[in-house]
Amino acid sequence: MRSRKPFLIFWRQYFDKKLTRSDGRRLPKDLAIDKITIEEIAQAANRLGYQVQIETYLQYPRRWWEDPGRVLINTQGKKKSKVIKEIAKEIKKKRG
Q1: Which three-class secondary structure string do you get for 27-94?
Q2: Which H/E stretch holds residue 95?
Q3: Using CB atoms within 10 A of its CB, is residue 16 exposed (0-12), middle (13-18) or buried (19+)?
Q4: What is the Cα 19 distance to its own chain's centre?
Q5: Which fold has domain 7-95?
Q6: What is the distance between the alpha carbons of residues 21 and 94, in angstroms, rounded to a whole number?
Q7: Integer Cα distance of 96 and 23 in angstroms
Q8: pLDDT tens, residue by residue, 37-89
Q9: CA angle at residue 71 from 91 to 52, to 5 degrees?
């Protein structure tokens, strides 16, 4: 098994507006996003200057039946919660 350091895992479900907090959403409803893809997350992280890797074959454990995929982001020592909010704001800005 390879080491993920310094990358943190970001699942699509963290940003999904349809999900509840107990189902995996990590953002407040006003920052959460409808129909988000892992590609959008990766592009937003790239625009913010983070190093990104996409893994398309892995399932989110709480919702294993949904679309697979996760994004690994080198957060450069920032807290995961702050990076999630930055990415959500960038995606909302891009969508208009």
Answers
A1: CCCCCCECCCCHHHHHHHHHHCCCEEEEECCCCCHHHCCCCCCEEEEECCCCCHHHHHHHHHHHHHHH
A2: helix 80-95
A3: buried
A4: 14
A5: Phenylalanyl-tRNA Synthetase; Chain B, domain 1 (3.30.56)
A6: 25
A7: 27
A8: 999 999 999 999 999 999 999 998 888 888 889 999 999 889 999 999 999 99
A9: 85
